[in-house]
């Protein structure tokens, strides 16, 4: 089981930006579909964005399209989530995920059978 470590969370004003990072050990050596998951208070976990490693294609939840960008630096074994125009509705704990299973698609933004990191809190509030 790969150990994932997220960082970059915090408190930001509405309209602000934040970049989350996740170290994915072995990303430079193995094929991983990777992504970001979030869970807001009182809500179910939802996939935010993911990258299909085979196709090198990114997919996003409708709620974040145009505002969030998922990317990765394979050489650094790091996954990123650039979050712009943050809204209070984005407040959640954010988790990164990496899995050998080719789960990522427009319909499947996170692998429910997989695992994810400990998560970081993102709070958007004035």
What does this structure look like?
This protein has 126 residues and is an all-beta fold. Helix content is 0%, strand content 44%. The strands form 2 sheets. It has a 6-stranded mixed sheet, with no helix packed on it. Strands 1-3-8-7 form a 4-stranded antiparallel sheet, with no helix packed on it. It is globular and about 40 Å long.
List the helices and strands and how they pair.
Layout: E1 5-7, E2 10-12, E3 18-23, E4 33-39, E5 46-52, E6 57-60, E7 68-73, E8 78-83, E9 92-99, E10 120-124
Parallel strand pairs: 2-10
Antiparallel strand pairs: 1-3, 3-8, 4-5, 4-9, 5-6, 7-8, 9-10
Question: Brief description of this entry?
Answer:
With 126 residues, this protein is an all-beta fold. The protein has strands at 5-7, 10-12, 18-23, 33-39, 46-52, 57-60, 68-73, 78-83, 92-99, 120-124.
Q: For the largest sheet, list the strands in their spatial order.
A: 2-10-9-4-5-6
**Rg computed from alpha carbons, rounded to a whole number of angstroms:** 13 Å
H and E order: EEEEEEEEEE
Look at the structure and give the mean pLDDT: 94
Shape: globular
Distance between the termini: 39 Å
* Unreliably modeled segments: none
Class inferred from helices and paired strands: mainly beta
Q: Classify the helix fraction into a percent range.
A: under 10%
Sheet of most strands: 6 strands, mixed
What's the total count of β strands? Answer: 10
Number of helices: 0
Sheet-strand content, in percent, reads: 35-45%
